Structure prediction request, 246 residues.
Amino acid sequence: MTLAADEIKACCAAAYSSGAARLLLGDSFHPGGPALTSRLARALRVGPGDLVVDVASGPGTSALQLARETGCEVIGVDLSPPPDADDPRVRFVAGDAEALPLADASVDGALCECALCIFPDKQAAARELIRVLRPGARLALSDLTARCEELPESLRSLPAWVACVGDARPLDEIADLFETAGLLVEQTERHDEALASLLNRIEARLKVAAMLDAERVAAGRALLLEVRRGLEGGQLGYGIVVAQRP
Prediction:
């Protein structure tokens, strides 16, 4: 299925800035929640005086956590309207991951959580991340992983893309993407259990939501069932990549 990049970006921005997204996903819009964000924050090896970009920062939860835990300054970049920041070390700007509104070699680290999977041009996003990193700076990325050729057509639709499944890639392919673009991959890790836990939370919240709008929720539950089958069958998962700019 061929989808237009602008359509994908518009749908993703609308979906993740909606109240429904916060209802289903909570404050952390990614598997692993604050615990996995802390894992990525440690991998960045940043501290006070450093500047980190949080790409596809969404509601800003991880950007604020990163500043709080490491003392660094954070710029959150997202297509959605910028949220308010209650920490002077954090600011949010509207921007596209494929054309970051930052100068070359201007940041000491980059965080990107469960977002590469929804970027239409992943090579462009990888080049942008490398462009803005200073030499020696690190990228800490988590993402949904998939062997898309083994997934049913229902998980390659626009709704599935917005749900992070439709264009997700295998973990080794994600690592190769950044190696090819010029980063040195230091480690990869699988965290499939984080995705399983998130699916359980979404399912519980969908049961509550069904009391209000059963017809609309039914489509979401059908997609959730397909994702769960993919996870159980090994076609879907979750993982992290930590890489450094030479």
Observations:
- The chain has nine helices and seven strands.
